[in-house]
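Justification of resources, computational component.

The compute hours requested in this renewal are based largely on the per-chain cost of generating structure records like the one below. Each record pairs the submitted sequence with a full structure-token output. That output is archived, and it is also reused by downstream analysis tasks.
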Amino acid sequence: MNRTKNYLTFFLGSAVILLSGCRSIGPGSIKEVHPKYNYALAETVNEQMLLNLVRLKYRDTPYFLEVSGITESRTLKASAGLGKTQWNVNAHNSGPTAVMAFPMLGAEENISPTITYSPLQGDKFVKNLVDPISLEVVLMMVQAGWSINRVFDLCVERINSLDNASSASGPTPDIKPNYEDFFQATELLTTLADHGKISIGVTEDRQLGLGISRPGEPVLKFLQKTKNSEERSKLNKLLDLAEDLDEFRIRNNCIDQVDHILALRTRSIMEVLFYLSHAIEVPDEDIDAGLVTSTSDENGEIFDWANNMSGQWLRIHCSDEKPTGAFVSIKYRGSWFHINDNDLNSKSTFMLLGYLFNLQSGNSTRTTAPVLTLPVGN
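The structure output for this chain reads:
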């Protein structure tokens, strides 16, 4: 009798274990699948951004596709039946045979995910890509902790009379653009900011009376500790700023320049993408075949984008084989393009680029064209 009881306990316990193993229905399924979808989406968004940068290098048309929906249905199909076992009653395997029937329980889980893709296109989306990035967004990035020289070098095409490679805001130019004085100015601004000698931000609203107020405006303010400093003196000369003023309003009008205004002309997000694409490494055979533009300096030598200008912020390498230890990689035109996982400087710029893209394109309505919905196999 004890033996029968032990068998019954074992088989019933097995049934409980079988059923308890199917815990991916309900809250358990969120813990199981949410991190996987999160990881896959983040990886594909990075790959798409890298792909479009490489496309611009080759003057191919960029294209953006968004995962607009993920649905997943899960069903649990249970089954039941009877099994039997038998054994000899006595210990010598002789004599009468005992037979016991026991329940057989089973469960099968079916997972049916469906992913919906929406093209990012239409007049509003394109307009957001080619409209200049607002001064508010540029200053917001600086105030969020991004260095001035990284944000300004990418997003600002001109400060007062200093040009930041405006010819590099489109397809790769034939002649090296001017950028040296601009880079020197942004380095000085970064140094002054790191030492707490300047403040860049938006002033408070000004009350004019009778319930009327003037919105705050972006300003650059020199603090008292910058008096007679070498950095400020150099910056004043580079930007043609008034020596006797400590506060300068920031405007986006670079036409009417005056010494008490800091005029910034910003790039669009598409111009930022072009600007970063020039430093991408490409195979020598693609250069020889004329698939990409070679830029010449003032001496007629090939200009090295990778070690100058945008190359100091984002390095995208190429190889014949799929790279190991890459942060993100894609295959295009027979070559692998990638960002090294230990290149924290490039990863920071790539992250900033993602923020800027989302800020510029996030408010656009999605296309009304048919979307692509794919059921994913188990």
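The chain has a mean pLDDT of 81. The first strand starts at residue 65 and ends at 88.
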